[in-house]
Design goal:
heterodimer, A: 101 residues, mainly alpha, B: 421 residues, alpha/beta, FAD/NAD(P)-binding domain, five-stranded parallel beta sheet, 24 strands, globular, binds flavin-adenine dinucleotide
């Protein structure tokens, strides 16, 4: 199990390499951000995020998450308070979503 | 006979029409190439002027001109709504029934605001205590409301990103501070700026070096505020995580989307209706003979007129290469250049691209004359002069002396150890 301290991260705590990620690391990342313990609802979002990133090269926006992850926007904010798109991206081990230039 | 069709005759479409008409003048004269451009309405708006209309600095008349007059004679202008783009058959269908067949199509239909996307925004209070300034009508209505405002809570809210001219809402806050100061009302008005981003600016470098501006102007900042609903009767804006911001006057920057026909064309756009576009060549991903420019694309650059100008230089080259069967050049670097009006006759200037954050220094040359990332009167004059530059140099598609499409590194003070993003 890779310890959080052993992986390279950006100043904002995102993984430098998405390949460093596994599900145990996600639990550590979640705990660090005050999220969790991770439930099936969290995982629905996290898996959706990771898949979107692997296919499209960028994480989904809140709008897409609310429409397509199976969790609506209201619940997204309960699961990942404040900024779901950003927070879930960090826990899912993918880079900070663009979408905001 | 080759047919080039440009969809949208705003900033980007007009620049492309002018540049291509010049580059292809021989082919057009010989009758081997023709260019058609389509737009739905007859007036061209100088959109940076929309920021100044609410404060009575510009009148509507000063911000609009006829659309056809900005276009070259050699290009056919059709005024109609675009209904659909069919990339399988290379045709565009217009609302008036005309069908245009093209060899090459450039999508330049910009963005539109969709206030309905925020629950309650177009309900009670819309146009009375809840406003927007991204359209002429909206800016005019807001001008009247600001004239009549005698004090209370002014709330400025960006509903969601991306928006065009991402600094305009903040400039609005700065100008409001100035406006109410001049009218002797500043102590009776509180100004709050609520944004879904984690800082006031989209660029962290700006948020860091410009935080003092908000403090100095007594503008309260609410970050990571994702608006979920608004109640125009109670005067309350509520975020998805249940934070409530009360207001007497709300200036909303509503959700932006691309043109409707983009969402309807399979494979052309993303869920917001922005065209899936190669960020370096500006070729659409859907098919090689479709290109996109300006606010209509999904490239991670600012949606700004200056960006459309820099893109046009690259896209003109790539259109000509495509017509000659040559490989495209990945020439666009995300270059943006924005004046940020800070009120009290001053402005800031920022210059950046995909990789480089806005840095301090001088522009456009190492010696100046304009300082970067720093307030100055000269920058303010630059912002005002931009209106003349827009009509007389930018739209006709002329290069700006000393300001090439690719961002210059000279004049910028790079940090000693540049961290790679
Ligand atoms: C308040 C404000 C302040 C700004 N300030 C600045 C600034 O200081 N500096 C700067 O560089 N930029 C600024 N901008 C941004 C700048 O105006 C835009 O980025 C620029 O105009 C984009 O050009 P465009 O051609 O992509 O889109 P637009 O100029 O918006 O043109 C799109 C055109 O497509 C047409 N169209 C859309 N859909 C259809 C359809 N279905 N059928 C037919 N026609 C259609 C529209 O009528 C429109 O004419 C500002 C914008 C705003 C709103």
């Amino acid at each position: 199990m890779p310890a959080l301290t052993a992986v390279a991260r950006t100043a904002e705590g995102f993984l430098e390499r998405a390949s460093d990620w596994d599900r145990d690391l996600a639990a550590e990342l979640a705990a660090e951000s005050g999220v969790g313990p991770l439930t099936d609802r969290h995982w629905l979002v996290l898996d959706y995020m990771r898949n979107t990133y692997l296919v499209k090269g960028d994480g989904p926006t809140i709008r897409t998450l609310g429409k397509e992850s199976g969790v609506d926007i209201k619940e997204l904010y309960q699961l990942f308070p404040k900024g779901p798109a950003k927070l879930a991206a960090r826990i899912a081990g993918i880079p900070k979503p663009h979408g905001c230039i | 006979m080759r047919h080039l069709v440009i969809l949208g005759a705003g900033t980007a479409g007009t620049v492309m029409a002018n540049r291509l008409a010049r580059s292809l003048r021989r082919e057009i004269a010989a009758g081997t190439t023709r260019i058609t451009i389509v737009d739905q309405d007859p007036v061209h708006i100088y959109q940076p002027g929309l920021l100044f209309i609410p404060f009575g600095v510009y009148t509507v008349d000063q911000a609009v001109r006829g659309r056809a007059a900005q276009l070259p004679k050699a290009v056919r202008y059709v005024q109609s709504r675009i209904e659909s783009l069919d990339t399988a058959t290379d045709t565009v269908t217009l609302a008036d029934g005309e069908v245009l067949s093209y060899d090459l199509c450039i999508v330049a239909t910009g963005t539109r605001i969709v206030p309905e996307e925020l629950d309650g925004l177009t309900g009670a209070g819309w146009g009375e205590r809840m406003f927007e300034f991204y359209t002429l009508e909206g800016a005019e209505r807001l001008a009247k409301a600001l004239q009549e405002f005698k004090g209370g809570r002014l709330l400025i809210n960006v509903v969601e990103m991306p928006i065009k001219c991402p600094v305009a809402p903040l400039e609005f806050a700065f100008l409001a501070d100035w406006f109410f100061t001049e009218r002797g009302l500043r102590d009776k008005v509180s100004i709050t700026y609520a944004t879904p981003l984690d800082g006031a600016f989209t660029k962290p470098a700006c948020s860091r070096s410009l935080a003092y501006l908000l403090e100095g102007k007594r503008i309260a900042l609410e970050t990571e505020f994702n608006a979920g609903r608004v109640d125009g009767t109670a005067g309350e804006l509520v975020s998805w995580d249940e934070r409530t911001l009360p207001f007497d006057l709300l200036v909303s920057i509503p959700t932006h989307k691309g043109a409707e026909f983009i969402t309807r064309a399979p494979g052309l756009g993303n869920e917001m209706g922005f065209v899936l576009t190669d960020p370096r060549t500006l070729q659409a991903k859907v098919k090689p003979n479709v290109f996109a420019i300006g606010d209509a694309t999904d490239v991670p650059a600012s949606k700004a007129g200056s960006v459309a100008h820099f893109e046009a230089e690259v896209l003109t080259g790539n259109v000509l290469r495509f017509l000659e069967g040559k490989p495209l050049e990945p020439g666009f670097d995300g270059h943006a250049n924005c004046f940020i009006e800070t009120g009290h006759h001053k402005a800031l200037l920022i210059d950046f691209n995909y990789e480089t954050e806005p840095l301090p220094g001088n522009f456009p040359f190492a010696w100046g004359p304009m300082p970067l990332l720093k307030e100055s009167r000269l920058n303010h004059l630059g912002k005002l002069a931009f209106r003349h530059v827009y009509w007389n140099a930018l739209l006709p598609g002329h290069d700006f002396p000393g300001i090439p499409a690719r961002m210059k590194r000279a004049g910028k003070r790079f940090p000693v150890a540049t961290a790679t993003p």
